[in-house]
Amino acid sequence: EKWQSFMDEAKKYKLIPIVRLATQADRENTAVWAKPTATDILDFANFLDSLNWPVENRYIIAFNEMNRFDEWGGEAPNPSEYAGLLLYTAETFKERNKNFYIIMGGLDNAAPNDKVKYMDNFVYINAMAKHNPDIFKKIDAFASHSYPNPGFTAPPLANKQMGVTTYQYEYALINSFSDKKIPVFITETGWDSSKLSEKVVAQYYKLTYENFWNKDKD
Asked: pLDDT of 161-181, one tens digit each?
């Protein structure tokens, strides 16, 4: 009832829902998110297929910042394991309805690369492709967390791999592994308004839209 009401409200206000799959706090360590399982994905697919969606494409993001230990059950990031779960997500959802649109979860663009708690987002993507060269042919899109790092305070500069243009580098890498165009959804970004004035933040958004995001909207 709760989620069908949400879908009905989205239709009423002409909004396109994008639903991100998530688990809950780990039972043994509540400081981290429980690692998703195939059973979780199956339950999500069955439940979300039972709803009446307001649009044809049923946008699904498969989990969040998997290159962080605290988003992966407190364990070291495991791109091979996630690639398998992502493939299962795509197959399971599309078996229920071909209009499910599967988006790979966004990665932390500022993660260090100690491979114990964190893994660099580009190292992670390459490892996924090494494990399964066809994984990016199985999804419909990927999410990008193009934060203006470091510290969510950096100005919007061109050609910055860890900034508001992170998505451009991720796009180039992911599409190098696919024979079809894999679009990007910028699902997280923004500046820290406790460190920058609202005037500066507004100016940064304006510059970003004018110089990057609107130019890449195809």
From this structure: 999 999 999 999 999 999 999
- CB–CB of 164/118 below 8 Å? no
Per DSSP, the three-state class of 142 is strand
Report the alpha-carbon distance of residue 75 to residue 94 in Å, rounded.
Answer: 29
Amino acid at 149: N
**CA-based end-to-end distance of the chain:** 36
Q: CB atoms < 10 A from the CB of 71, how many?
A: 22
| Paired residues of 144 in beta bridges | 186
Q: Could you give the C-alpha distances from 178 to 82, 148, 173, in angstroms and in order?
A: 18, 28, 9
Separation between Cα atoms, residue 91 and residue 121, nearest integer Å: 24
Closest of 119, 111, 53, 90 to residue 182, by C-alpha: 90
Sheet of strand 184-188: strand arrangement: 18-20, 58-62, 100-104, 141-145, 184-188
Beta bridge partners, 33, equal: 25
pTM as predicted:
0.96
